[in-house]
Amino acid sequence: MNYLIGIDVGTSATKTVLFDENGAVIASSSYEYPLYQPHNGWAEQKPEDWKAAVLATLKTVKEKSGVSAEDIKGIGISGQMHGLVMLDEAGEVIRPSIIWCDQRTGAEVEDMLKLMPRERWIEITANPPLTGWTAAKILWVRKNEPDNYARCRHILLPKDYIRYVLTGVFATEVSDASGMQLLDVPGRCWSEEVLRTLDIPAEWLGRVYESCQVTGQLLPEIARAVGLSADTKVVGGAGDNAAAAVGTGVVRDGRAFTTIGSSGVVFAHSSQVTIDPKGRVHTCCCAVPGAWHIMGVTQGAGLSLKWFKDNFCQDYVAEAEKEGVDVYDLINRDIDKIPVGSDRLIYLPYLMGERTPHLDPDCRGVFFGLSAIHTKAHLLRAVMEGVSYSLADCNDILTEMGVAVDQMMACGGGGKSPVWRQMLADLYRCQVKTVHQSEGPALGVAILAGVGCGIYGSVEEACDKLISADKCCDPAAGDAEQYAKYHELYKKLYVNLKDSYKELAAMPS
């Protein structure tokens, strides 16, 4: 039997899973680490924490499994997208990574638009300049930390830093590189025009691979430390959303998924390059060679619910500990008793600004319609509904672009909630399904590793063999009509508050 490992370097934790070649989970391990917010709108993590997490979880799954090292053929790596990792000549980390949800780079985005028209950015990178993406972060460091910039010799994404740790290779792959704003997305290679325009040395960037290509093998000292073979291959892997697509079988036209993790994503596969000229959704290379995906992103999806739980739900946490259950199960139990629309309470999930459809780093979270009748359960339901409205915004744009979706899968932590899935089915007005396999990105990159190692003939073939549907949620007609009305009001609120957000952002902190 052959075995494969999938590593998912997430925002809150790294999860490493060992699978057999039939997709069965043999062993898994998770390792959490902190998020640092030195200033409002900033978000950083230490790459050294990711390194410690990956090495620890690799060692744990090997020890727990009892599988021979020689039978573990390949490793795939998934990770949070857009983060900036800067290394010096010796390969040492220069500063903490500025990660995906950081919103400090508004001025740098304006600088990029002065250097090249917005339309040209979209033609080359398939997206307008964005505050959360890597290119603007590089410019921010150059402007604000010139000493750190002068030391820089290598620029990597979070998962590609882990590749360097494991293999000593500086490389990336097309799906994650698409989110740097440096890649020619239609051409699937670095853009010489963009690098020249931004004056970023091409040699700082690693070689670009397809997601299922082998990029290297484990360094002998790493193999010894974690109990694996130095012959174990490491493939390109994928950004977290592209990996989740493979892990849920979204690898053909007509298929899409919604994931609710820290951020939320509506993601559709496309065999053709389809670009929104308004730049509201993101087009990237996907993990299937020669194909692309379109995705809308909600910055504060699961992050909104976790923020509310951490700050205002100590009673739920205590009850969950006492009963030995998941705190989110208790939350779902209570909000299921609250009617659709949360008794006229609407939440805007803009805790970290927003990407789709507004591209606005200055917008912030709002409870609208709050009254004395509302309880904590009302606010919790409103949070989940607000995230769902934002995800419906994303789905509406895909429909407008002519992307026909006949199968919507749900994944991520929020996708496990039957209440949240029902909200999505009502707002999308289509079936929302889950897959039997629950490992998402980790399974996706393990599949990519299997293709790279020759265990599977193609990504599509592997998904047909390994992925199967589980639960299915149909829209409820009456609730869908009610949600449609609330969604229309939700969309008006941003328009009404847009100027006020700018005024608030200009105020002294």
Mind explaining what this structure looks like?
With 509 residues, the chain is α/β, with parallel strands linked by helices. It folds into 2 domains: 3-248, ATPase, nucleotide binding domain (Nucleotidyltransferase, domain 5, 2-Layer Sandwich), CATH 3.30.420; 302-434 and 471-500, ATPase, nucleotide binding domain (Nucleotidyltransferase, domain 5), CATH 3.30.420.40. The protein has 19 helices and 24 strands. Helix 11 packs antiparallel against helix 14 and helix 14 packs across helix 16. The N and C termini lie far apart (59 Å). The model has no long low-confidence stretch (mean pLDDT 96).
Q: CATH homologous superfamily of the largest domain, by name?
A: ATPase, nucleotide binding domain
> What's the number of extended β-strand segments?
24
CATH architecture of the largest domain: 2-Layer Sandwich
The structure class reads alpha/beta
Q: What is the CATH C level class of the largest domain, in words? A: Alpha Beta
- Tally of helical runs: 19
Q: Major sheet: size, sense and barrel closure?
A: 7 strands, mixed
CATH topology of the largest domain: Nucleotidyltransferase, domain 5
Choose one word for the global shape: globular
Please give the oligomerization state of what you see: single chain
Low-confidence stretches: none
Helical fraction equals 40-55%
SS strand fraction: 15-25%
How many discrete domains? 2
The CA-CA distance between the termini, in Å, is 59 Å
Rounded radius of gyration (Å): 22 Å
Give the overall pLDDT as a whole number. 96
